[in-house]
Amino acid sequence: MIDLILRNARVTGQDALTDLGVDQGVIVAADAGTTAAETIDLGGRLVTPPLVEPHIHLDAVLTVGQPRPNVSGSLFEGIAVWAERVADLTYEDVQSRVRQILRWQLACGVQHVRSHVDVCDPQLRALRALVDLRDEVRGLIDLQLVAFPQQGILGFDGGQELMREAVELGADVVGGIPHYELTREDGVESVQFAMALADEFGLQVDIHCDETDDDHSRFVEVMAAETIRRGMSGRVTASHTTAMHSYNSAYAYRLINNIARAGLHMVTNPLDNSVLQGRFDTGPIRRGHTRVKQLQEAGVNVCIGHDSVMDPWYPLGYGDPLQAAFVLVHLGQMSGDAELIRLIEMITTNPAAALGVPDYGLRAGGQADLVVFDAPSEADALRLVAPRTLVLRGGKVVARATPAQHTVIWDGTEEQVTFLRR
Ligand code: FE2
Question: In the CATH hierarchy, which top-level class contains the domain 2-49+361-407?
Fold first, then answer.
């Protein structure tokens, strides 16, 4: 007798339905003859390992409209509004907003989160709030914190000292924003500074890199070179990299080869960048995404990030990685049969690799962390942005959902509609 059996599970990547056993928090083998204290029939629903959020700015969530709305919706107005809001930031304010979003994320099946935290604050209020919250939620959601210099490392007074202080305070990852520094040379130096700091403390690196439409913004090449020189392959992530969209193809070819050689992880953020990029274009408007398909063809690990939830840069969202994946289907033209499955990997296994999540994946003997979608396949999960009906962490239910029932009255008769092909 084991604790739980999930019958008729459609485990991602497999065609046949299987039974998943859970005992003492661990996944165990189960068959038709296995008995359990509790049995749940999943009816062929899709099961994946936990969703992993590799890129969000938790310190800014739920601040949309504060202290004033971003009228144009542009990146620059967003930065100006945030600079005003940040003056009112308190430890309690950050914690209460983030506690709410972590619950939304868990309801979506997210159990691992990497958050950038603005450290251009002499008091490091947001980082202190999140370092304490990281301990509070450990075991339910694993939180990694990036020391993120929103105003730059060299271009912000005391930037280098604040980065070091943030690391000593407990940041897990060193960030950067080289395209925002005052000069190209400062940008290069900021990347070198961040990588040296991470190397000194044995940390990972995740840099906002080339988040612009300027095709002369070329700092990913510096990240790749530093990663190779320092032997930091696998510990370095380049986020956004939207300028790559606008590079000439000869340069992009050389760059992508070096990214692959360096073993960089890449994070694209389809929600924010679809509305923030291309703002200087009058038509056609560039999509402003990194070269996802070419990177993947070169064997590079590419992940999807959510970036913002209701903040000055992006007023929508509720923290669901599946929404971001749905948008990338369109803007990345990833509607091919195999690509739809790859999109699910880009919110599960790929970011798990980028974050270095230990013991990740569905296998006998592994911790029973999993997510059930109200959909029979990866394509249907994306199409419907399907609710997560069940989320387990260590074999325990940590989230569940009762999907909405839709009924039509057709010629006087009530009929249920499921949006699934019969
Ligand atoms: Fe970001």
Answer: mainly beta
